[in-house]
Amino acid sequence: MLTGATAIEMAHIPAMTADRSLSPEAALIESARGGDARAFERLYRMHSGRVMGVCLRMCRRHDVAEDCVQQTFVRAWRNLKAFEGRSAFGTWLHRIAVNEVLTYARNHGTRTEAGDPIEESEEGSSSFPGEFDAGEVVDVERALASLPEGARHVMVLQAIYGYSHEEVSEMLGIAVGTCKAQLHRGRKLMRERMGLSEE
Length: 199
What we know:
This protein has 199 residues and is an all-alpha fold. It contains 9 helices and no strands. The chain folds into 2 domains: 23-111, Orthogonal Bundle (Rna Polymerase Sigma Factor, Chain: A), CATH 1.10.1740; 131-199, Winged helix-like DNA-binding domain superfamily/Winged helix DNA-binding domain (Arc Repressor Mutant, subunit A), CATH 1.10.10.10. Helix 2 (24-33) packs across helix 3.
């Protein structure tokens, strides 16, 4: 029980509540870092669609993509205290997801390919900004699916998700020069397969 003097002193100490200057997402991250599973579940709902999009476009198999998404969020929950906010939370999740896809491929000694057309992910269809209009999204996805794995991974992360050469090279564990070469190759093959002439 607080004494009168202690109660007066405590009254002058600001309450340690959620910082009102934090964005809604940042507030959820802080709560989740403190062990709030409901806050993390909300973060999952906010980001799982885009994480699924990354995994599905990279690995081309829905079952594998679902496993990678699950593992991504398991690892994110376990390592949430290590998230320092130097990058966006979504970017941090994408890095984990890319690592999960690459780890799956290494552990199973196979490239993560499949012949079926890509299904639309929960994030909805997305095109390549500035290159194709909305009417060509299905053709874009099919052309993307047909790319060699290295070129496809770079195209997914750069052309669709907008990461820089440096970010993609770090995510994939390749040199920046290799990343640039794969992007050039991917764009060329995409245009050929979509019947588009070079500008």
